[in-house]
Amino acid sequence: FMDDPQNIQQGKQLTIPTDVYEINALNVAFNTMLLRINNLFLELEAKQNAVREAQFAALQAQINPHFLYNTLDNISWQIRSGNYDQALKSLMAFSRFFRLSLSKGADLVPIENELHHAQLYLEIQQTRYSDKMRYEIVNMLCQEELEHLYVPKLIIQPLIENAIYHGLQSTENGGIIVITLDRDDFGIALSVYDNGVGINEDKLSELNSMLSTNLQRGKFTNADGYGIYNINTRIKSFFGSQYGLSIESKAGKYTLVKIQFPAYRPPEPS
To answer: How far apart are CA 192 and CA 251, in angstroms?
Structure first.
């Protein structure tokens, strides 16, 4: 076509077959899809690494030396005092607590297991802080929901630990911890309340900002917010950024930590 001067002089345009354009469009779309898939794989790998690190740190927090020592020392004291029934009860709760902590390596567990794990922790701690701590569990879910809806493991106990050590332990007369589990517009709402020393406004603002952006500012200890950051990260990694933690508090009055997550049922094995 271009070699023919007559065609050029007459101003005839080069006609490209339609299928060439279609092939080019398909090629662009295919390359775009490959890039997107690659980015999704990288994002998934990063999330999985974050989840594994968070789970390991969460498990370490449950098996800390202070908790082990204090619990075993308390059981030893019960035995020396001749309170064998209570010692056996404490030992059995201690054993079940760690068995549920491990959960056979599962990342997600039924809500019932997570709630039972929290109750065992409260029972163990109440033998030590009987004069400082009362607790109540308010469960508004039915048994079918407790058994078949799943959550990341080890999300309640660290919040109870914070409520005891940073809420009630510093008060003169102790107080109460209330765990509430209910449905809401987003799925499931879980909260841990204590009427202890509360959190000052500056610290509360910092913690809520950290949770909403899911950014860890500095190296947090459990006292400074690492426990709640850990839980928040795992929930967002599993279910999406619209879920997670928030905190309400008033210094000298109370602290209320809320967790929102979907009513998640794992797919049936094929």
So the answer is: 16
